[in-house]
Amino acid sequence: MNIVIIGGVAAGAKAAAKVKRLLPDASVKIYTRDTHVSYSSCGLPYYIQGNFTDYTALLVRSVEEFAQAGIDVYLNSNVEKILPIQRDILVANSYNAELVPYDKLIIATGASPVIPEIKGIKYFDNVYTVRTIEDGINIRNQMLKSKNAIIIGGGYIGIEILEAFSKNGLNTHLFEKNSHIMPSLDSDISLSIQKRLDKVENKNFTIHTNEFVTEIIGENGKANKIFTSNNLEYDCDIVVICAGVKPNAELAYDAGIEIGETGAIKVNKLMRTSYENIFACGDCAEKTHIVSGQKVWVPLGSTANKEGRCAAMNAAGIYCEFEGVLGSMVTRCLNTTIAMTGLTEQAAHKVGFNPVSVIVNKFDKVAYMPDADEITLKVIADKVTGLLLGAQAVGSVGADKRVNTITSALLGHLTVEQFSSNDITYSPPYSPTIDPLLNAMQILCNKTSRSC
Amino acid sequence: MNIVIIGGVAAGAKAAAKVKRLLPDASVKIYTRDTHVSYSSCGLPYYIQGNFTDYTALLVRSVEEFAQAGIDVYLNSNVEKILPIQRDILVANSYNAELVPYDKLIIATGASPVIPEIKGIKYFDNVYTVRTIEDGINIRNQMLKSKNAIIIGGGYIGIEILEAFSKNGLNTHLFEKNSHIMPSLDSDISLSIQKRLDKVENKNFTIHTNEFVTEIIGENGKANKIFTSNNLEYDCDIVVICAGVKPNAELAYDAGIEIGETGAIKVNKLMRTSYENIFACGDCAEKTHIVSGQKVWVPLGSTANKEGRCAAMNAAGIYCEFEGVLGSMVTRCLNTTIAMTGLTEQAAHKVGFNPVSVIVNKFDKVAYMPDADEITLKVIADKVTGLLLGAQAVGSVGADKRVNTITSALLGHLTVEQFSSNDITYSPPYSPTIDPLLNAMQILCNKTSRSC
User: Fold this and answer.
1) DSSP letters of B138-168?
2) Going by C-beta distance under 8 Å and a sequence separation of 6 or more, which residues neighbour residue B65?
3) DSSP A266
4) Of the residues A42, A242, A310, A333, which is catalytic?
5) Looking at A274-323, which runs of residues are DSSP E strands?
6) Which CATH number is correct for B2-39+59-112+246-315, 3.50.50.60, 3.40.50.10860, 3.40.50.720, 3.30.420.40?
7) With a CB-CB cutoff of 8 Å, which residues 278-337 of chain A face chain B?
8) Of A411, A419, A430, the CB nearest to B418
């Protein structure tokens, strides 16, 4: 049994390890274009910041560890074609080409940074994206000799890099073309993030919304100035592009594998593609949203792990279903934790719910505790059924706790009424007597058609 | 309409405020033996510690604020009898006695500390319980002039006082007669709490298990030495009794109001007692456990608030059900957060489930993050149905997050299999790629009869 895996960061690495444990006698091979395998790309902003200084901490399993487990890893290996009929992949390095046969193929080609159409964006060495180990090393090295930084995009990678640069004393300008940073959240919540960031002490950064970079100029291969849509210019020693990612689905598309409406590879609950013996998992694969039932593309390392495991099990002949995602995320920018799960109010409207919502601003613990901090919590429910649809929270450490409490409620299809009697933990260092979650539910109860 | 409330700490205060809002024309009176009304007794250990120095921060609403809302508060007022047939209560101060008529009565008499049978325990001024504002003020004042402290009991109040004394530099001995501190948890989890506390730097306390105080001696009204069941003796300048609490149900019992099997006042889902127009709520009332369906007595401020609200609504003629509790709790002792929800493994056995469990020891965030700390998480499920029954966690800040994620799952009656695909939030500062919760569920899946 030949099992071939394309890609080896999160989903691919997990799938390889799992399938080899299930089928010890199978040949398991990972082919990746990357110079590294099995690493935490989510950790790059924290390596750049200097939370730890040895980048090898990001590596989960080395090539040698894979070899010891009987898994062959081929780094710097470009897979040029998938040939589903003859069950081969075409691997081409600069010096040779090879057909590698497979019985089961697992595609885990991940995602790539979106490069916006900005004049000069491709000309300079000090303009980076944040995806690979090399990106991390290069950005950190350049950051350490930089004074002025530009970040293009205010999504979660953008604000994580903002934290890194701010902590390292750089004077940073972040540009978000939408009206708010974190545009995947509802705008009222995005606004409360900006309000908190405005209160950071010794603020050495500026967030520009409704503004984008139009041109990058420089000399000797180094960018030194950018121009913006507001006809302003800013000096820079480093530019980081955080304008989102797109699924690496071309290889699959070229092979005739069906692509979903989101642009990612279409899979069923078994992570199987339109070809019986080809699976896809991780950032290259489309997902089902558990609340809306609709197809979505939410690329995240935690999902990649689950999908990699599920793809491996089915490839090994053991039935496993992956139900889908809730779109849950958490991130941090300086004094602020940002978390969400389920549908935003905007998304709930789009998919046909009749959403009602509430925003509460409360202390995250009893107000007399010395480190009590505000939390802004938004909860969204369907007006007619009272069904919980999603939540977003902005605050200090407790924001992700509230959102995770909602994830299980979404999984269990709880209504606002049911949740409002939830016996969540209480003690002054951890929560007010009436938790913001329960506070929100009590208010939301009155907005739904079901009384509680 | 005369509404009378006996007790005014949490449930009573909440009920009074709510019922007055619902029935602005009603007469609402609170009678309490206490010298204060509407305060956070859960905050006393943090006041004693010195997290804040003004005890009035513990007061939620003052007598004046109640008066402004049209609610009369009678402090230092001893209710001697409830007379359900004639619908009066008998209030007796030292100087007079008065019959106060009611149309609806809400009993919120709370709980009292258990005083163990220890020779000399009642003779000394510097032997305290932790319940009222005065207790807090007295303990703090005595602590500030003490070197050696004794804590009797290792439940959550005991370990919270231990934190307070340790942070204030006292040399403290805590005695727990059971084999582990936090005896309401499973013993394997209690043990992991002790292991963490053993690692505290500059440890100035000793936890004695399987040992109890047998005698307290002293002179001039001050205890100065205790003797233990191991025939040892310890000097002391302060002794705090944290040996649990018991419901204040005598007044109700004497009036012929039905008492439940737990010793607390029996109520239905509407918080109604065996008398149509008498309600009970808070620490004096019995609760229903949502997972087991059985009657339990878990006295907690957060539950008191919910029950007070529900009792007030029904007293005002607005239908409201209180479903019950999950037994959720969280507390902190120095470097350790301890949280639980649902049934312990031991309790699950007792009520007839066939529990299986798993304990995982994992980092609470990605290991390369600078403040990564271990979390010990136990999850319990029913072997036959796969139904989640409960969870306990010990660790740093993230322990309560994991437990709260389970509370909603218990409320939604999720199985291990369903939970194992939960899309909980992930980012290196907040969670490893595979959260300890999901890790535990994957292992637990293999122990239940349902495959996943």
Assistant:
1) HHHHHHHT-SEEEEE--SHHHHHHHHHHHHT
2) none
3) P
4) A42
5) 278-280, 287-288, 295-296
6) 3.50.50.60
7) 290, 300-303, 305-306, 322-332, 337
8) A411
Cβ–Cβ under 8 Å, residues B161 and B240: yes
Taking CA–CA distances from B287, the nearest residue in chain A reads A423
Q: Do domains B2-39+59-112+246-315 and B127-243 have the same CATH topology?
A: yes
pLDDT in the model for residue A348: 98
DSSP 8-state class, residue A194: H
How many angstroms separate the first and last alpha carbons of chain A? 58
Of B409, B339, B347, whose CA–CA distance to B377 is shortest? Answer: B339
Amino acid at B32: T
Tokens 């919120």 sit at which residue?
A: B108
What angle separates helix B156-167 from helix B133-144, to the nearest 10 degrees?
40
Return the H-helix or E-strand segment holding B172.
Answer: strand B171-176
Cα(A68)–Cα(A163) distance, rounded to whole angstroms?
38
Distance from C-alpha of B11 to C-alpha of B287, rounded to nearest angstrom: 14
Q: What is the pLDDT of residue A94?
A: 74
- CB contact at 8 A, A358 and A448: no
CATH of B337-445, one of 3.40.50.300, 3.30.390.30, 3.90.460.10, 3.30.465.60: 3.30.390.30
| Calpha distance A215→A440 (Å, rounded) | 45
- Distance CA(A68)–CA(A86), nearest Å, equals 30
**A42 assigned to active site:** yes
Q: Which two tokens stand for residue B398?
A: 């993230």
- When scoring B368, B377, B423, B438 by the number of chain A Cβ atoms within 10 A, the one with the most, hence best to mutate, is B423
| Contact predicate A108/A18, CB 8 Å | no
First to last CA, chain B: 58
Residue type, A447: K
Q: What's the predicted TM-score (pTM) here?
A: 0.95
Tokens of A55: 């980048």
Residue B224 has φ and ψ, to the nearest 5°, of: -135, 0
DSSP summary character for residue A170:
-
- Cross-strand partners of B325: B289
- With beta carbons less than 8 A apart as the criterion, state whether B289 and B325 touch: yes
Coil, helix or strand for B355?
A: strand
Q: How far is A15 from chain B (nearest CA, A)?
A: 14
Nearest residue to A14 via CA among A59, A56, A58, A61: A61
**For A392-447, how does the pLDDT look when each residue is reduced to its tens digit (9 = 90+)?**
999 987 999 999 999 999 999 999 999 998 999 999 999 998 999 999 999 999 99
Domains of chain A, residue spans: 2-39+59-112+246-315, 127-243, 337-445
Among the listed residues A135, A127, A146, the one whose alpha carbon sits nearest the alpha carbon of residue A221: A127
Architecture per CATH, B127-243:
3-Layer(bba) Sandwich (3.50)
Residue (of A189, A177, A51, A32) closest to A118 by Cα position: A177
Q: Dihedral of CA B439/B444/B447/B449: which sign?
A: negative
CA B252/CA A1 separation, integer angstroms? 74
Rounded mean pLDDT, A190-208: 95
pLDDT band at B225 (very low <50, low <70, confident <90, very high): very high
CB–CB of A408 and B403 under 8 A? no
**H or E element, residue B330:** strand B329-333
Strand (E) or helix (H) holding A394: strand A388-395
- Other beta carbons within 10 angstroms of residue A52's beta carbon come to 18
A363 residue type, one letter: F
Amino acid at the residue B411: L
Q: Where would I find the H helices in B11-104?
A: 11-22, 44-49, 63-68
